[in-house]
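Worked problem 6 (solution included).
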Amino acid sequence: MPHPTPARDGLSTREYVGYALGDTASNLFFKAFGIFFPQYFYVEVCGLNPVPVATMILISRAWDAVNDPMMGLIADRTRTRWGKFRPYLLWMAVPFGIAGYLLYTSPDGSHGAKLAWAYVTYNLMMMAYTAINVPYSSLLGVISPSPAVRTVASSFRFAGAFLGGLIVYLSAKPLVRALGGGNEAQGFAEMGAIFSGLAIVMFLLCFGLTKERVTPPPAQKTNVAEELGELLRNGPWVFLLFAAIFSTAFQFLRDSTALVYIKYVLKDDGVPLWFGFMDRFTIFMSLGAVCQILGVVCLGVVARRIDKGRLAAILSIVTALCYGICYFLPPDNFPLLVAVNCLATFAMGPTSALVWAMYGDVADYGEWKFGRRSTGLIYSASLFALKTGTMIAGWLGPMIMHWTGYVRGAEQSPESIAGLMVSFSLLPMVFALLKGVMIWIYPLTQAKLDVIERDLAARRASA
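Solution. The predicted structure is:
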């Protein structure tokens, strides 16, 4: 069995791929959250009113404010022969899969019964997602002591993430049609079972193929109040917090609006155009995911020779401009819309990998400045930022539909069409611009990181 190369020279390809599989598993559901929840599945399929759905998203995210940092603190205090974070990939893989399946079920009954079931299954899935993804994300911070190697690992991770999205975009609607036989609710449930099984296998492979190499300082003491205080005084983390909120908001809002936008603004009837199963939605989202993967692959070539912050900021602005252009495109020119979206997603792909690699740098900075490494807390708070972005988008999307007079399954009014266009283009543009600003003023330059890396290596050697 080949051994990984030293961290300074990179990890083995097997470990990079193994780590990427964890985000492929996650995105079989996270990308589905974006395109089906809350607007399509809860409103179109289950028949729930948009306003209580938006309220449910807000309440769920209020719990995440406690749940996510709590998981980070628990993970930081975990001690096993497998490390601090990897064990959760083993322990939570099956619960995650079960929760994922239940999310796609909707029992017959009254509106109140369906809403109650949505509350239970949505929050159950979010808690399972936290329990496995806080440790998974934190694993990036300890997979290598080298920021350059972590950037490469992050690029593999997001190639895996976008691969998960591509699987969803290519197969979700065809599976629902084929398995449901005209019953969308049944089709979604059976599709959820397939995705759950795949996610369980991928998380277990991720556990088996990765390794933790960075440990906290030997004399580190744990103190929740002090750790939370240090987190708030960690300036680079604060900038990334807002960048992550804005990043997730624009991606989630655009993805969750795309299906209803294509259905009502482009007046798509769902008839396949390519290969007998790819309709306009599948084509639009799949080509976008392919361009995201290409963007991340291009990042991997230059990852060791760039200032992550500047590059991520510039690419975020490119994505924002493309989204703004989409507002002015004629709805009958679908190829042009696809082309502009491909440019936007090609630029967006590397920014996600860069920002998540920067969280590992923030953990280094915290250890360097405060003498305490709180990797799990940093990544859990960052996951909270991600969920906060989905909260903003998950509330805005249904509420804009409500405010502009959206009517399920009917010809939409000009006001409703305008609302969908704003949700699909202009609001994502604003959030993407805000993300670019936050990353531009992020203070950890490559020169600063080089100093931190050398100082930490010296400290660890002396300890």
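Discussion: The domain at 15-209+223-462 is CATH 1.20.1250.20 (Growth Hormone; Chain: A;).
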